[in-house]
Design goal:
With 147 residues, the chain is mainly α. It has 5 helices and 2 strands; from the N terminus they run αααββαα.
Length: 147
């Protein structure tokens, strides 16, 4: 399962980088910008929860596109390190953004992250379409045919 998660992280990294390119080449709706920020920031937050360190970044914060690119690269690197160092059945104690304590397996947090990427990229695609922009093709099977 580690290898599959690593492969999915590579897929999501490519999709995120495709979004960065699209954002740099187009006039992007404000809602899409907020969603992209949230997507990258929450990855950072979940990584920090998994390593037991606090994150001081608000989950709906705002960064420049270049800052998001750098954060995405750091996020992907750290998530891959976590996958290689922590057993998937390791239990993580964390608090959500409201301060409520929870526990989750590493595998469940990683799976949540992957779903979170897909969910918000779909919202961005919808927002692109609503604003006359062509959404990116980000289907996993399409990615696999290019590999």
């Amino acid at each position: 399962m580690h290898d599959f998660f690593l492969e999915l992280l590579d897929y999501h990294d490519k999709c995120n980088n495709d979004l960065f390119k699209a954002f740099s080449e187009n006039q992007i709706p404000e809602h899409s910008n907020k969603l992209l920020n949230h997507l990258i920031i929450t990855h950072h937050v979940w990584n920090h929860r998994m390593i037991g360190e606090p994150s001081n970044i608000a989950i709906w914060g705002e960064f420049s596109l270049e800052e998001l690119r750098l954060m995405n690269a750091a996020n992907m690197k750290l998530t891959k390190e976590i996958l290689l160092e922590k057993p998937l059945t390791n239990i993580i104690d964390y608090k959500n953004s409201k301060g409520i304590s929870y526990q989750a397996f590493v595998k469940d947090i990683i799976f949540h992250l992957l779903n979170h990427f897909t969910y918000h990229r779909a919202q961005i695609a919808t927002n692109f379409r609503e604003n006359g922009l062509v959404p990116l093709v980000s289907d996993y099977i399409y990615y696999k045919t290019l590999a």
